[in-house]
Amino acid sequence: MYTKPILKLPLFLSAILFCCLMACSKSNNNNNSNNGSSSLKATVDGTSWQATYVYGVDSTSAHLIAMAGSDNNQTNTLLIAFPDTLGTGTYSMNIAAGIIMEYVVKVSSSSSTIYIADPAIGGSGTITITSYNKSAKQVQGTFSGVAKNVTNDGTSKTIASGSFSVTYH
Asked: CA-CA distance, 78 to 130, in Å (whole number)?
């Protein structure tokens, strides 16, 4: 059974990154990322998805590198996070370890559905960090997995061929 303490971290990250994305999108009229060169894309349930707005942050208090991207309509958001102590390599998604893939679908102006790739609720996934330059604050890699609805209603999102190239702040 999935417990509320585990849910607090991704919901907290979602809230912070959503605010960052909203600020980024309002100040960015040319529809590219926070620095013009960051990207986040994947195939979600067989359909190509690419973030129009991408934001990356180094949360030193949580010791996490987190990145989020939102599509042009801001109806779908993808979040990837991992401990800032990781190096290049392949890692399994696991919220308890701070390795997170979350997909958020905006249902209405006041409601969203959250899908998480975590074994605790039947999800799975991997992230491969191919390049990580802490001094330049740049990270690149790939990811894939199955993210399950956090309400355990049986629905899921299959995320394949994911890639990111992000300069974080």
From this structure: 19
